[in-house]
Amino acid sequence: MSDHESTYVPKTGVEKWLDTRLPIVRFGADYMSLPTPKNLNYWYTFGGILALCLMIQIVTGIVLAMHYVPNTAMAFESVERIMRDVNGGWLVRYVHANGASMFFIAVYLHMLRGLYYGSYKAPREMIWIVGCVIFFLMIATAFLGYVLPWGQMSFWGAEVITNLIGAVPVVGEPILIWLRGGPSIDNATLNRFFSLHYLLPFVIAGCVVLHLWALHHAGQNNPVGILIPKDRQAKDTVPFHPYYTVKDGFAIILFLIMFAYFVFFNPNALGHADNYIPANPLVTPAHIVPEWYMLPFYAILRAIPDKFGGVVAMFGAIAVLFVIPWLDTSKVRSMRYRPQMRTFFLIFLVVCFGLGWCGGQLPDAHVIGDFDTFILIDGDLNSYLWLTRLLTAYYFIFFLVLMPLVGLREKPLPIPASISEPVLSPRIPDAAETPKAV
Amino acid sequence: MAEQVVTHDGEGGDDATRRDFIHIAAGAAAAGAGVMAAWPLINSMNPAADTLALSTVEFDMSKVQEGQQVVIQWQGKPVFVRYRTEREVQEAADTPLSDLKDPQTDAERVKEGHQQYLVVVGSCTHLGCVPTFGTGDFGGWFCPCHGSHYDTSGRIRKGPAPLNLAVPEYEYLSDTSIRIG
Asked: Taking the CB of residue A253, how many other CB atoms lie within 10 A of it?
């Protein structure tokens, strides 16, 4: 699939002239004609959707930066001015704000797709790792952006997140002061966060180029999870254009319909009301909650009754993603042929939603109404604190224990020899058949 | 006189040659220049001179009524000045040190003769939010960010915060006024 022969033939005089000097048209043509597995389903459309999300954020972001003032005295009012006075400013701001949420919806589905179909396994480790870098940069960028309106959530989010670094022993405190540019979150902090929020999306764009380069070199994975043999290339692949440009295009339209629903009919549903209150350095709002896409990680942080331990667990929850290619011992890529792992994956899915849910609740609140249990160590057993701890444990067990262990012990279902076989052959191979090499 | 053959590419022994020296010197100079170029860029993000002009704050204690708390701003952070009731002072003094995660007696946290006034930096020692007054399981403060509880002496009793609310440096200028910082 990778490094396919160039089929581009320059036709016009201008193309011929250009092709011998800067073969940029050839580059684009080869890119669009890339042989792509023909069994890709709609879970494979989120890459295109994410590329669109990045472009929407960059374009709306540049427009917003033309009206926004990164100074504590004017930041909040300048955003209100965008909402009231700038032509279509309300639209651009709501698209940018909801765009971040849409970006995260898409990236989580994109990652879960990769997890399910084993898209991180050899020879695609670098695609996965660069993807993890992009995810981390996305979190950082979204955090920096949320600070800019200088509302209550902005301020206290900045306070808490910068303090995470302050939790590191010895070097934490000087780094914290360096990051803030002073003893507390203030104008110096806001001013540099604006600069970095502008910079990071372009770093992300650079990483996306590496992500695609790695993808095109190692070749696209597919729901069956097998490498396409050289001699089956012609039968099992189709050119990317027009087949997948149209399929991605259709998915993008559906995605934009959902996007538009939020922007036009429910623009504040995914935000927090307290960020419409200007930042007050003397009062933390009683109902402070992070953005929804951070909730699972926030829940993990809060579950650990130790400052540095909590920070380590939270960053560990992201760091563990980087080493998944080496934690998964199974030779079979797609979970379609891994019945046991599929069950654990579905539980993992529920756990992720559960962590997000717990992150939105008070830690001491009861999970089951008035049901009284007993105090275990430092909290009621029937509290979100203990539910979160349980879910956090599964999150790490899934990656650190189940992935290596199940891979070695489970007996996978028979894997088809080619991606057209499960479609074309009427006979379902019996389970006793040994799995074919992948 | 012993002869030693030294060719231009360094053949002639295991000794370091002039060329090796030039490589190391050039490499070291480049690395040094790189560090010297990077440092001002990094250092520019450290607190600026106007920020470093740290302030002191004076406060008239007669503004606080019994059972009340006044919040003042000092170096961008909130400072709680709390006029504790007799019962709260008693509670704080009666707490056995074995109950505390960060053991400190109440007397170590207030000034002699002014036990009723508690002056602490109002930043949760976990991740820096401002705890809310008079709430939580110990009658002191409760931090809404990750659920830490502090007692009437501002000591950590429950939750992820590791330390007691910090007592800033301050002194009584007269019977009713203090200077913080």
From this structure: 9
- The domain segmentation of chain A, as residue ranges, is 29-290, 298-328+339-411
Residues in chain B closer than 8 A to A162 (CB atoms): 128
**pLDDT tens-digit profile of A329-375?**
999 999 999 999 999 999 999 999 999 999 988 877 888 877 777 77
Is A163 an 8 Å CB contact of chain B? yes
Indicate whether this complex's ipTM tops 0.95.
no
* Tokens encoding A18: 């250009």
Q: Looking at residue A7, what is its pLDDT? A: 87
Domain A29-290 belongs to what topology? Cytochrome Bc1 Complex; Chain C (1.20.810)
Neighboring chain A residues of B136 at a CB cutoff of 8 Å: none
End-to-end Cα distance, chain B = 76
Question: Torsion angle, CA of B124/B130/B131/B132, rounded to 10 degrees?
Answer: 180
B176, with CB counted inside 10 A (0-12, 13-18, 19+), is exposed
B127 contacts A160? CB cut-off 8 A:
yes
Backbone angles phi, psi at B156, to 5 degrees: -70, 130
Decide if A286 touches B, using CB distance below 8 A.
Answer: yes
Question: Do B84 and B118 form a contact (C-beta atoms < 8 A)?
Answer: yes
Annotated active-site residue B114? The verdict is no
Does the pLDDT of residue A1 top 50, yes or no? Answer: no
Backbone CA torsion sign across A282, A284, A286, A287? positive
Distance from CA of A360 to the nearest CA of B (A): 11
Q: Which residues of A touch B46 (CB under 8 A)?
A: 177-178, 181
Among the listed residues B23, B114, B146, B149, the single catalytic one is B146
